[in-house]
Amino acid sequence: MTNTGIDSGSTMWRAGCSMTFEATTTTPMVFMLRPRSGPGQWVAGESYRLSPSIEVVEYPDVFGNLCQRLVAPVGPFEIQTTVDVLLNNAVRVDAGYQAFVEIPDLPDSVLTYLLPSRYCESDRFGDMAIDIVGNSNPGYDQVLAITTWVRNNIANVPLSSTYPVSAIEINQRREGVCRDLAQISIALCRALCIPARLVVGYLEGLQPMDIHAWFEAYIGHQWCTFDPSVSPDNTSARISIAQGRDATDVAIYNQFGPLLLPLDMRVWVEKDVS
Prior knowledge:
Elements: E1 11-23, E2 27-34, E3 41-51, E4 57-60, E5 66-72, E6 75-87, H1 126-133, H2 140-153, E7 155-156, H3 167-173, E8 175-176, H4 178-191, E9 196-203, E10 212-219, E11 222-226, E12 238-244, E13 253-255, E14 264-271
Parallel strand pairs: 7-8
Antiparallel strand pairs: 1-6, 1-14, 2-5, 2-13, 3-6, 4-5, 9-10, 9-12, 10-11
Helix pairs in contact: 2-4, 3-4
């Protein structure tokens, strides 16, 4: 078993997602709907159902996310996934002080999360990041200051952006969805040479329920979770599905050809009481 930090005090959670499409032409698609075991979570069981049943090829992307490649047929098409995940109750958002890691001491795999990316233009946020963190201690305190600033200054408005927008645009609009708040936070962190990445997954009790997005910062030689779109004392269960540089890397599905949007989408998270 992979060392995931799961202990006897962990809790089992069940989450799932279902999407229904109506394709007018055969449509190549790539889904990203299978969580992996990792720090704080262990995938104990899952189901992945397609209707009609079609061939699926799975591959890991450059970030290790599990991607399911298929060609949706003409007509109605449904995908439904469920997953049972054991979560470590000790893993909390914003938990504990973690120091800044000097760049020469960062693992090679983390360096990419220092660079500007499509939706996180960190090279444009240097002065703003310095103003926000002020005299905060390097590392955790700086990331906490950024998270608090975003939470207080960028309104979390569900459905306010139906497509990804950049950190610069969100800073101008001063409102966005959870993904947008996470991405401006990432840009500010990277501007201070703190590696940061976008995470998508399930969050217990989210209203309205949907796939959620937050971010992780690399401090104290580990990835730590921060979420500017929820209350700072939120301890709801969260299940990571995928992580990457920004929204480009963690879309739960990509389709190629004529636009194909879900006719219906449902997401759920519940404690397993069986």
